[in-house]
Amino acid sequence: MTLLHEILDYNKMFVENKEYEKYERNKLPKKRMVILTCMDTRLLELLPKAMNLSNGDVKTVKNAGAIVSHPFGSIMRSILLAVYELQADEVLVIGHYDCGVSGLKAEKVIESMKARGISQDTLDTLSYSGINFEKWLHGFDNVKESVEHSVNVVKNHPLMPRDIPVHGLVIDPSTGRLDLVVEGYIA
What we know:
alpha/beta; Beta-carbonic Anhydrase, Chain A; five-stranded mixed β-sheet; 37% helix
């Protein structure tokens, strides 16, 4: 049985047994905040538990490294929609120690692409078209500096209301300890 069919079989039972009822919530975040965090698998349950969050408490946006890499990309759009349409009154950017994006270099990713069948011709065409792989696939060297950078992009975005606090934290994926990097209540 494939992983997809295993999921679909489980889902059928989940729906038939009405397991979803214990998760029913309003679409608006009860604690009125939006969190940008990393997609790391260790944070799936640890982060909400470490912050005393339950289903329906916050809006969560995830990507590799909890990075706002473009002020008008999908991450920033999601944060702005959470603020303007879903009543989020605070933003938290939460990176984590031992992140796979830390120290990430484009060369390594490109070699993996080639090993999976992406041709040099395709890479050359994209480079010629303006894709800067060194910049696009580069990670960060320091998680706290990366969180500060993302906080600054969000806080200083021309469409972000000035009264929205934007906080930056780093979580330890082993213990759940949160380290404050930027407190958004301080102007």
